[in-house]
Specification:
mainly alpha
């Protein structure tokens, strides 16, 4: 039947005039050819099945494994192909972080002006608050960079390492600022001495 359909198709192209029998036959022929094609690729004579039988190390049955067509290609679970899970809607979610970031940024302006007017040794609390605010402001900025460019879904090893490195560095800087403000001249006094040096 396959050869007969190909022969009729070739003859109709040679004559360059439509064959009414071929037009009626074309839908049926297409379905039949597709069924024969599927049956061939699932048979034991198919190169796909023979190649799979050669490489298989286990017992191979006569029926080939069923392949499932997925529109758009295969979807791999557990990678960046996964859709983003959305949290339940909440009016306050995220607004607290945003408000805290804006508060720290806005508080740095009067803190810096007050520290420039006064001395760090006279007002150690003001000096400590300025130092902590600067460290927290820097941590928030670097954390946003790490979250945007080193996401743990795309960078499963580097992302968490960089996030924990940032946390360790921030903790170390806070300990150093505390030691510097309590046992030495303090941040404001250091800046004023460097400025007038």
């Amino acid at each position: 039947m396959y050869l007969r359909a190909c022969d009729r198709l070739a003859r109709s192209f040679q004559l360059l005039e439509p064959d009414p029998d071929l037009q009626m036959f074309s839908a049926t022929a297409r379905r039949t050819l597709l069924a024969q094609n599927r049956a061939f690729f699932r048979s034991k004579y198919s190169p796909l099945v023979v190649g799979a039988a050669r490489t298989a190390t286990t017992n191979v049955s006569a029926t080939p494994p069923e392949s499932v067509y997925v529109p758009g290609g295969p979807v791999i679970q557990g990678t960046v192909n996964d859709p983003t899970t959305f949290p339940p809607p909440s009016r306050g979610h995220g607004s607290h972080h945003w408000a805290f970031e804006r508060l720290v940024s806005a508080a740095l302006i009067p803190l810096t002006a007050a520290a420039a007017v006064t001395s760090g040794s006279q007002y150690p609390i003001l000096d400590g608050i300025l130092a902590i605010s600067l460290v927290v402001h820097s941590h928030i900025g670097f954390d946003a960079v790490v979250a945007d460019y080193l996401d743990k879904r795309k960078w499963p090893i580097v992302g968490p390492i960089s996030k924990w490195t940032l946390r360790a560095a921030t903790t170390g800087v806070l300990v150093g600022i505390y030691q510097f403000n309590t046992n030495d001249i303090g941040l404001t006094e250091l800046i004023s001495r460097v400025w007038t040096a």
